């Protein structure tokens, strides 16, 4: 709708250099760069910077993460949510089990962050072998020695 309006580039300052485009956006992960199509955005003709509206940013991130997960064979958001429920864990408890930071599992389940290969494999192992949970929980939470089982 704003396809004929041009703005100055906020990055390099070039006058009226932004143009609207439907070109795929490129999202970089450690594992590679993925194209995300379907998001009209502005691109600077001078410096090449792409500008995505703030309210579209999460949708772009989610599309890129979904593409990367499909390509890399990683668990989807729904699978991570499902395995967490199958294991009977809150997001914070799964974070503790995996040794990842607070809020990480929520971002994986929303699909805005790509889980690393190690966490992905560990989640698969736990999903297939929930009997491993008490030992991992003990190590992650108490860390006093390998032999005492967690209570409860
Ligand atoms: Zn620019």
Could you explain how this protein is built, in words?
A hairpin with a 2-residue loop joins strand 2 and strand 3 (32-36). Helix 2 (77-86) crosses helix 4 and helix 2 (77-86) crosses helix 5 (117-128). The chain has a three-stranded antiparallel beta sheet with strand order 1-4-5, with no helix packed on it. It is α+β, with helices and mostly antiparallel strands. The model is unreliable at 138-145 (pLDDT under 50). The protein has six helices and five strands. It has two domains: 18-72, Ubiquitin-like (UB roll), CATH 3.10.20; 77-141, lambda repressor-like DNA-binding domains (434 Repressor (Amino-terminal Domain), Orthogonal Bundle), CATH 1.10.260. It is elongated and about 60 Å long. The structure holds zinc ion.
- Approximately how much helix is present in the residues? 40-55%
Q: How much of the polypeptide forms β-strand, as a percent range?
A: 5-15%
Overall morphology: elongated
Number of DSSP strand runs: 5
Tell me the major beta sheet.
Answer: 3 strands, antiparallel
């Amino acid at each position: 709708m704003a396809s004929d309006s041009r703005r100055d580039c906020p990055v390099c300052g070039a006058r009226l250099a932004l143009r609207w485009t439907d070109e795929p956006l490129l999202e970089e992960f450690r594992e590679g760069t993925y194209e995300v199509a379907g998001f009209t955005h502005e691109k600077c003709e001078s410096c090449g910077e792409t500008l995505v509206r703030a309210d579209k940013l999460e949708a772009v991130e989610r599309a890129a993460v979904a593409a990367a997960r499909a390509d890399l064979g990683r668990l989807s958001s729904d699978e991570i949510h499902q395995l967490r429920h199958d294991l009977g864990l809150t997001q914070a408890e799964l974070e503790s089990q995996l040794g990842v930071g607070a809020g990480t599992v929520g971002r994986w389940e929303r699909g805005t962050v790509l889980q690393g290969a190690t966490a992905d494999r560990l989640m698969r192992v736990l999903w297939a072998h929930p009997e491993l949970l008490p030992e991992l929980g003990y190590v992650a939470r108490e860390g006093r020695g390998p032999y005492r089982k967690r209570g409860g």
